[in-house]
Amino acid sequence: MYETQIAIERHSRSAVPGVVRTQAICALAAVAATLPIASVGNGGSLAVPPDAPGNLRAPADQVVSVEALASGFQIYECQSKVDKPSTYEWTFVAPDAVLLDQSGRLLGRHYAGPTWESIDGSSVTGEAKARDPGSNPSSIPWLLLTAKSTAGAGVFSATKSIQRLQTVGGVAPAEPCSAANAEQVAEVPYTATYYFYRPAENARPVPWAGADKY
After folding, report:
1. What is the largest CA-CA distance in the chain?
2. Helix crossing, 2-12 with 22-32: angle to 10°?
3. What is the pLDDT of residues 140-155, one digit of tens each?
4. What pTM value is reported for the model?
5. Distance, CA of 180 to CA of 173 (rounded, Å)
């Protein structure tokens, strides 16, 4: 099943070579295997634009095409600082999450890039443009990203902007980071809602064409 494949690939393709994550693979594979696959993005209708801080709003000529709920991890590694090699800090490596729609159907996955990939094979890689601390200071910030590149033909191929809102968790570990645990990897659970925007002239919902490919 494609959903099980996603969970296994995401964790076998570790951002840090040699890291063994067997428990995480088994746990996420078991969860993903219970998720139905989405056949049509947003049930065939456009999502409603979210209430977001002014600096995180997408351009007025763009509309929401996909709303995705992410559940997974923010991955960090204990590394020495570039400008102070004798000092260590938790450094963000990559996100690692599954993407679901409001009904709990599988939409795709989110991984290093940052990249979002749908089950129809299309993907978008973003670049952070603005941020806001959000409503929960103990969670990762809210973001506005612009599309740096896209690939494939599908729901993400026309994406121009992405918002990360309603974040819970995901902040760097509170545990010490020093030479004693250098290169240690930590996976911090998080959830967030991502909104994908496309030009208004391309606003018609695009069917998810990938469900029968896997």
Report:
1. 55
2. 160
3. 999 999 999 999 999 9
4. 0.77
5. 16
